[in-house]
Amino acid sequence: MKTTEQLEAKLKRRSKAAKLEIWGRLVSLTALMLIVAVVVAIIGFVASKGIATFTSNHVSLWDFLSGKSWNPGVNGANGKPEVGALPMIVGSFLITILSAIVATPFAIGTAVFMNEISPNKGAKILQPVTELLVGIPSVVYGFIGLSVVVPTTRAIFGGSGFGILSGTCVLFVMILPTVTSMSADALRAVPRYYREASLALGATQWQTIYKVVLRAATPGLMTAVVFGMARAFGEALAVQMVIGNAALMPNSLVSPSSTLTSVLTTGIGNTVMGSLQNNALWSLALVLLFMSLVFNLIIRLIGRKGRLQ
Amino acid sequence: MFVNNDVKNAMAMEERHVIKLSDPDHPVILSTEDLHVYYGKKEALFEGDLEFASNQITALIGPSGSGKSTYLRSLNRMNDRIATVTGKIMYRGVDINQPSIDVYEMRRRVGMVFQRPNPFAKSIYDNIAFALRLRGVTGKHKLDEIVETSLKQAALWDQVKDDLNKSALALSGGQAQRLCIARAIAIKPDILLLDEPASALDPVSTGQLEDTLLSLKEHYTIIIVTHNMQQAARISEYTAFFNQGRVLEYDTTSHIFTNPSVQVTSDYVSGNFG
To answer: Does the pLDDT at position B181 exceed 70?
Structure first.
């Protein structure tokens, strides 16, 4: 009898391993809670500030989203403040979509070369180059844009050279490595037996890439492109340096315009907290935050659809 | 299994028994001459030369790493980018291991089915039509006809004829493997290479697969790598026993399983190996 009790006591005593287990769980849970708290706080803060434009300054949401003139300090002809964000929203979307359109073929082409055509050279040369490009600070991209891309655009198309086209060129280079390495991951995830099956049926390598590998990797490639778009949409500094920062509806690709981020970075330091000018900028930030949530949602949807296939 | 030269020389003294084929009803369709396969500097296959009789099933057996899959994959040059293959692979009198051979055209004649069922993430119909479309067969009527006959030959038609547009990934393992066979024979190859096609299947599916293979040999020459010795005994006319990168014995299946000439073969087929 005594041995049974001893055994029970021994089994019920918390061992060192069990205590460590609890401790470890506690640490990781705390870290998680902290991150959740930070995210919630950021969203809450931006939302409360951003909504103030509509609640305390009585700007209608529709005027904000569809108005074409941005001049928060001045009242317009109808006596309402001019806080039409449409030029920036259009500028942001235009520059994002254009740079994604230009970058996608290059990124997928590079990924195909790295992964399918010449895996050796890909791993030795292209992989490090891609990683290097990711690591270059955006101010450097912006500076090169300012001193190379803008004068070139000016020489070819006339005007000042600042505008959506220059921004697209800079963003193209900036999102290219992200899209490339994510595309390469997507291709790498295509099982080897797909390629073998295709080759064994007498398909050439190109037919295999085009008809089998790229098709199988489509959800992953789409995720890569959307990820690149999210990055382009949120990029501020480099774009601000080359876009011209005129809050006007872009009427051509080479006329100075602005994006949500460029207006924010140029304006936020020059306004007083609590004023309409300041609140209007927070509303722009809210739009940005909302859009990045939408991009995230799209990425998740694509991922889920890919898994279901 | 990689071996150094000393071991190799010692092994060369060992007994071997490899027959030459002389069946006028089933002439030699494929043979290798002085075939060596290297992974980097390591020699994975030597002394592996065999002749294959047309419209017969030849089984390649042997322990893991004996070189049998390496040999099989070299036959339609699937090892091209992985290994160095020297020597001749004679197919109907043509050496298909020359650089000037168009491997894509060659693989249309020498098809392959893999260990793991590997249908594409497409519909059943599109899986079979894949290789045909690559070759410019686009007529709906013609495609329908070939898809149907291929599935019938692979004994899958009755199970899937109403689901041709459903995803091939929904098929069971045995059905998927027979779909892969149907896909391979849709382009009417001469020779069908199978690399352990039943190793991922349950016994019932394996039995159905074997029945399929037996019915296919009327039209195709079949070479199959298998770990399952009963399977080799059940379906093949000839059997080659591979060990450590070389063929130790090649003869009719009944000879290999009832009266092997080489001691190692005898040990292996009776389960006393290693």
So the answer is: yes
Task: Report the Cα A40 to chain-centroid distance in Å.
Answer: 19
Token output for B29 = 């369709």
Kindly determine whether residue A201 and residue B78, on different chains, have CB atoms separated by under 8 Å. no
Q: Which of A196, A212, A309 is the closest to B114 by Cβ? A: A196
Distance to chain A for B195, nearest Cα, Å: 12
For residue range B229-273, what is the model confidence (pLDDT) as tens digits? 889 999 999 999 999 888 999 999 999 999 888 888 888 888 877
What residue type is B147 in one-letter code?
A: V
The yes-or-no verdict on residue A176 having pLDDT over 90 is yes
What was the ipTM of the complex prediction?
0.84
What are the residues facing B51 on neighbouring strands? Answer: B31
Contact across the interface for B120 and A198, Cβ inside 8 Å: yes
CB contact under 8 A, A204 and B104: yes
Nearest-by-Cβ selection for B120 from A197, A199, A204: A197
Q: Which two tokens stand for residue A266?
A: 């140029």
Mean pLDDT of A241-251: 85
d(CA A300, CA A297): 5
Q: Cβ A197–B111 below 8 Å, yes or no?
A: no
Domains and CATH numbers, chain A: 83-308 (1.10.3720.10)
- Listed by start position, the domains of chain B span 5-269
Beta bridge partners of B60: B225, B240
The pLDDT confidence band at residue B214, using thresholds 50, 70 and 90, is: very high
Nearest to A228 by CA among A134, A128, A163, A116: A134
Cα–Cα distance measured from residue B42 to residue B37, given in angstroms and rounded to the nearest whole number: 8
The answer for B158, left when phi > 0, alpha when psi is -120 to 50, beta otherwise, is alpha
Which pLDDT score, from 0 to 100, does residue B60 have? 94
Chain B nearest-CA distance from A155, in A, is 47
Distance between CA B112 and CA A193 in Å, rounded? 12
The reported pLDDT for the residue numbered B11 is 57
End-to-end CA distance of chain B: 14
CB contact under 8 A, A194 and B108: no
Phi, psi dihedral angles at A257 (to 5 degrees): -145, -160
Nearest CA in chain A to B79: A196
Q: Between A and B, how many CB-CB pairs are < 8 A?
A: 62
Pairing status of strand B57-61 against strand B221-225: parallel
Which amino acid is located at A120 in the chain? N
Report chain A residues whose CB lies below 8 A from the CB of B131.
Answer: 201-203
Please list the residues that pair with B243 across neighbouring strands: B246
Q: Which CATH architecture has domain B5-269?
A: 3-Layer(aba) Sandwich (3.40)
Closest approach of chain A CAs to the CA of B177, in angstroms? 12
Q: Which of A190, A201, A208 would best serve as a mutation to test chain B binding (most B beta carbons within 10 A)?
A: A201
